[in-house]
Design goal:
The complex is a heterodimer. In chain A, 81% of the residues lie in helices and 0% in strands. By secondary structure, chain A is mainly alpha-helical. Chain A folds into 2 domains: 36 residues; 215 residues, MetI-like (MetI-like fold), CATH 1.10.3720. In chain B, strand 4 and strand 5 form a beta hairpin. In chain B, helix 7 crosses helix 8. Classes of the chains: A mainly alpha, B alpha/beta.
Chain lengths: 261, 273
């Protein structure tokens, strides 16, 4: 069991990590100062931070983050609903598992950005097209984990609920749904990262607004510092979602089940 | 406790009979095998008695319990509970399983509360019932713990408390102590005797441990296998609490064991073919 009491050990740990990042920035700065590559190809850290500040202050980055997260939210929520329904279907019917289940496994291996040409033909250069790509990124991993989650629940638990008076749908609501949480946390985390990657690729390729688009704006302006700063923001958003949402969910599972999700 | 109630007002069958299994047969058919697990088994359990079914593995004792609990609705014969045919699982016949069938996402308190919540008992009414059940199985201090933090014996005590909380008319126990170490098993046997005595519970208890059957049972049903049949029903008129070291317990256990050995030697030719 781990205790979160701040100790000498964790103090050293923070120091080690801080030193590491200071060293990385130092090496980066050294390389930039040596001017092996010209500054418009390889910017110094201070130029990147300046670009970051400028674009934060002029509202470009906040607007882009908002636009990207909005697309993610819509696509992800829809894909959660679709994925759950699909997963429940293939977990509860042998016939559906053999047919639809096979398709889901196959389509899952398709990088979701490859849906973009199709999406453009169907929906045009529109918001729907990009949300469609996000949706295809996460729906199938959510479906697969929903199926695994349901099938992984010991039948004994449903039987126990039955002997305590649970009706069929009560057993579903109070045993199957909570019982599939550990698998779902994993699947949703994977689905999120697939969707996030495909959103960035999609925005880079055509749509206005969003972080991916801002990256392309930076390239068009030949503003390498801006490109670096936007990449930095993409990393920060990804890590923040991972820590704040999925990290919390994983700790929740760990506390109850006694193992990592 | 409502567990006592049915004894006063038996609704069917012979006076005081809660569970009546009559001419039960059960066949397991697979592509390669056709096994007669139970062959014309009859058994009655009266209110407030503890009946232990003991027999070798494969004698169909757990199958019989599953039929009585309503977990397995496919069988030949008549199974009634309080005069009504058994058609499925019901909280009147709560089950304690061999494996700790507890919900890992709920803490101890919420596990014990589970059946009450299903029935829509308001929170204010649930809390005192759960407190009482946890006290009964000596787990009051662990009500906030999660299942993986408990020992094997504690898990089985939670299962017992969870089953008792729904006020079953009869408790079904399927080898609940089989996976525990000897010390814990002795403790839980004592604890079950005291709990059952205090609330006047009716219990059907399946075990392959002869001594356990004699310690717990008012009656011990000895089963033989191939196919599963009731060989003999032995009354155990000993005072309680009984412990494994009692001489009388040892004597009765020897008697049950002799019966089991005899049945297995008779059964031998079936396997020699």
């Amino acid at each position: 069991m781990r205790f979160s009491v701040p100790s000498k050990e964790t103090g050293y740990r923070a120091l080690r990590i801080a030193l590491f990042y200071i060293a990385v920035i130092g090496v980066w700065w050294g390389i930039a100062r040596a001017e092996i590559w010209s500054p418009y190809l390889f910017p110094a850290p201070d130029a990147v931070f300046k670009a970051l500040r400028t674009n934060l202050e002029n509202g470009q980055i906040p607007a882009a983050v908002l636009a990207s997260l909005q697309r993610m939210a819509i696509g992800y929520v829809v894909s959660f609903v679709l994925g759950m329904l699909l997963g429940i279907l293939i977990a509860s019917s042998k016939w559906a598992n053999e047919t639809v289940g096979g398709v889901v496994l196959g389509v899952q291996s398709l990088p979701s950005i490859t849906w973009l040409p199709l999406a453009v033909l169907w929906f045009g250069l529109s918001e729907q097209a990009i949300i469609f790509v996000v949706l295809m990124g996460s729906t199938f991993s959510i479906a697969i984990s929903a199926r695994a989650g349901i099938l992984g629940i010991p039948p004994l638990l449903q039987r126990a609920a039955g002997t305590l008076g649970a009706s069929r749908w009560q057993a579903y609501l109070y045993v199957v749904l909570p019982g599939m949480i550990p698998a779902m946390v994993q699947g949703m985390k994977q689905g999120w990262s697939f969707a996030w990657r495909s959103l960035m690729a999609g925005e880079l390729l055509f749509v206005s607004a969003g972080l991916g688009h801002l990256l392309d704006v930076g390239r068009n302006l030949n503003n390498i510092a801006m490109v670096f700063s936007v990449m930095f923001v993409i990393v920060i958003v990804g890590v923040a979602v991972d820590r704040l949402i999925f990290g919390r969910a994983e700790r929740w599972v760990q506390e109850r089940w006694g193992y990592a999700a | 406790m409502a567990i006592v109630e049915p004894a006063a007002t038996p609704r069917g069958g012979a006076a005081g009979t809660l569970l009546a299994l009559t001419n039960i047969s059960k066949r397991f058919q697979t592509e390669r095998q056709d096994t007669l697990a139970l062959d014309d088994v009859s058994l009655e359990v009266r209110a407030r008695e503890i009946v232990c079914i003991v027999g070798p593995s494969g004698c169909g004792k757990s199958t019989l319990l599953n039929i009585a609990a309503g977990i397995d609705p496919h069988f030949a014969g008549t199974a009634t509970f309080e005069g009504q045919p058994i058609t499925g699982m019901a909280r009147e016949r709560a089950v304690v399983f061999q494996e700790p069938a507890l919900f890992p996402w709920l803490n101890v308190r919420a596990n014990v509360e589970f059946g009450l919540k299903l029935r829509g008992v308001p929170k204010a009414d649930r809390t005192p019932i759960v407190d009482q059940q946890l006290a009964l199985v000596n787990l009051s201090k662990f009500d906030r713990a999660y299942i993986h933090e408990l020992s094997g014996g504690m898990k089985q005590r939670v299962q017992l408390a969870r089953a008792l909380a729904v006020e079953p008319h009869m408790l079904m126990m399927d080898e609940p102590f089989a996976a525990l170490d000897a010390q814990t098993r002795d403790d839980l046997q004592l604890e079950l005797q005291s709990v059952a005595g205090r609330i006047g519970a009716t219990v059907l208890f399946v075990t392959h441990n002869v001594r356990e059957a004699v310690i717990l049972g008012d009656r011990v049903v000895v089963m033989s296998r191939g196919p599963g049949r009731v060989r003999r029903v032995i009354d155990i008129p000993l005072s309680r609490p009984r412990t494994p070291d009692d001489h009388d317990v040892a004597d009765f256990a020897a008697m049950v064991r002799a019966e089991l050995q005899e049945s297995s030697s008779e059964a031998e030719p079936r396997y020699a073919i």
